[in-house]
Design a protein that fits this description.
226 residues, two-stranded antiparallel sheet, 7 strands, flat
């Protein structure tokens, strides 16, 4: 049985991608206290949406996740994880739904339009404030419709551009058939690679188990971290 020192609380994550100022999304935060290399302590924070999973189970699953990431990083360096194990190919499934690249490009234009609109609004606010502020020695100032429209014109233009960009983005489907996007696509044989992946993972697990036993039972400091 393993024990950890943890804190379990709820936090509000700001949503910067929405137009509503101050909008947040509530998440559960598990904070684990661990020993630091300098002899002190540090905290590891885990954010999840599951409200019912025990804190100990969350920490255990995150540790398993890190172990998987370490496995892939180590395998790429030592086991040629990204190598082509077979050059045999076959036709890909043309009915498979894949992300539409144009959707991402259209969203980038939406983000740029939002930034331009925000910048234009900020400049307009400063200019309107300057128009409404009386000059030295005067008590009143007159702001005509023409003056107001001149200041607001860049904002309205930016707003029109933003609305157009959002409509284009919404009209593009998120996914399309592979056959429509890239007809005739080929895929390499996967069976051989999956078998080789199984062998590599077994070799990694064996190496890490031996390193853990050496480090735990002998105190040999140069043993690989597990």
């Amino acid at each position: 049985m393993k024990t950890w020192m943890v804190a379990d609380t709820l936090v509000d994550l700001p949503l910067a991608t929405t137009k509503i100022t101050g909008e947040t999304f509530q998440l559960r935060q598990i904070s684990r206290i661990v020993a630091a290399s300098n002899g002190g302590a540090r905290q590891i924070h885990i954010l999840i949406t599951d409200q019912d999973l025990p804190a100990g189970e969350v920490v255990y699953r995150m540790g398993s996740r890190w172990r998987q990431e370490n496995q892939f990083r180590y395998a790429r360096m030592h086991f040629a994880l990204d190598s082509h194990d077979s050059y045999r190919s076959s036709d890909d499934n043309e009915n498979r739904m894949v992300p539409e690249p144009a959707k991402k490009k259209a969203y980038q234009k939406v983000v740029a339009a939002r930034n331009a609109h925000a910048e234009a609004s900020a400049v307009a606010d400063l200019n309107l404030l300057a128009l409404k502020t009386p000059s030295a020695g005067t008590d009143e100032v007159t702001v005509t419709s023409a003056m107001h429209n001149h200041v607001m014109a860049p904002v309205w233009d930016a707003e029109t551009t933003l609305i157009t960009a959002e409509k284009v983005h919404q009209s593009i489907p998120s996914k399309v058939r592979l056959g429509d996007l890239n007809p005739g696509q080929q895929v390499l044989d996967t069976e051989t690679k999956l078998i080789h992946h199984g062998i590599r993972m077994a070799a990694y697990n064996t190496a890490m188990t031996i390193a853990r036993e050496i480090r735990t039972n002998t105190g040999y400091k140069r043993a690989l971290p597990y």
